[in-house]
Write a structure and sequence with these properties.
alpha/beta, Conserved Hypothetical Protein Ylqf, Chain: A, domain 2, 2 domains, 40% helix
Length: 283
């Protein structure tokens, strides 16, 4: 499968972010804790150079906890501040204010030296589609400040949110980058829903996901669906359709329904907490 999704509004959003970065003290980058490297837009490092940086490993409740610890250490070794969060359930959020102050300690000290007191830290929240930026902002702010949705592309324009005297956030639309050099990255982003589902053949995606999980987490698919993991991917999909009674009109097996079941179960953590890439892959 070939993966690409770069609609026109993303080009416009990137230009606007390049303009707005001049106003910013801190770049808060939200990634999906299950695929932390694949869910990072490589353009963000160039955009945020010379700025304080904070990476939030969101959806950590769906990720492999031991792998999340390793990812945190990995990014910290690269000079980033890092917090693992579950924005939907407000976990890890209390630590963020202190980490923002740590990340911006030099800026705060410079302000004080100039006699400037209580100027808020201005932070730009960035990330690719569907990693939970708006959910994070609403959870962090304690109110519905940004629009949310469970599909990519909900946030279309920028909006400032004043959280308290100390922090102001600039929400930005989720943007991908024009071309995936490595189609494996596109595949992982399709698994987590960062590429629109209607652009992808769901049966193929489910079979690729089955291959990934069987390789990385043996027995997880067998335990969930009662299938033989030694089978080929298309045979496993067929077994899932049979075992879960996915029947189309006319009595045939409904492979599309089985595929969507597998994909949704993965995205919702029903199959188990699992990463699809690890820091050891990037050394």
């Amino acid at each position: 499968m070939e993966f690409q999704w770069y609609p026109g509004h993303m080009t416009k959003a990137k230009r606007q972010m390049q303009e707005d970065i001049k106003l910013i003290d801190l770049v808060v980058e939200i990634v999906d804790a299950r695929v932390p490297m694949s869910s990072r837009n490589p353009d963000i490092d160039e955009l945020g150079k010379n700025k304080a940086r904070l990476i939030l490993l969101n959806k950590c409740d769906l990720a492999d906890a031991a792998a999340t610890d390793r990812w945190k250490a990995f990014f910290e070794s690269k000079g980033y501040h890092v917090v693992a969060i579950d924005a939907r359930n407000n976990k890890g959020m209390k630590a963020i204010n202190n980490v923002i102050n740590e990340a911006c300690a030099e800026k705060i000290a410079r302000d004080r030296a100039r006699g400037i007191k209580n100027r808020p830290v201005r932070a730009m929240v960035v990330g690719i589609p569907n990693v939970g930026k708006s959910t994070f902002i609403n959870s962090f702010a304690g109110r519905a400040s940004a629009k949310t949705g469970n599909k990519p592309g909900v946030t279309k324009g920028k909006q400032w949110i004043k959280l308290n005297k100390g922090v102001e956030l600039l929400d930005t639309p989720g943007i991908l980058w024009p071309k995936f050099e490595d189609q494996t990255v596109g595949l992982r982003l399709a698994f987590i829903g960062s590429i629109k589902d209607d652009l992808i053949q769901q049966q193929e995606l489910a079979m690729e996901l089955l291959k990934y999980i069987v390789k990385l987490y043996p027995n997880a698919i067998a335990d969930r669906y009662g299938v033989d993991e030694s089978q080929e991917a298309h045979e496993m999909l067929q077994s899932v359709a049979q075992n879960r009674n996915c029947i189309a009109k006319g009595g045939d097996l409904d492979y599309d329904k089985a595929a969507l079941l597998i994909i949704d179960d993965y995205r919702n953590g029903v199959i188990g907490r699992m990463d699809l890439e690890f820091p050891e892959d990037y050394k």
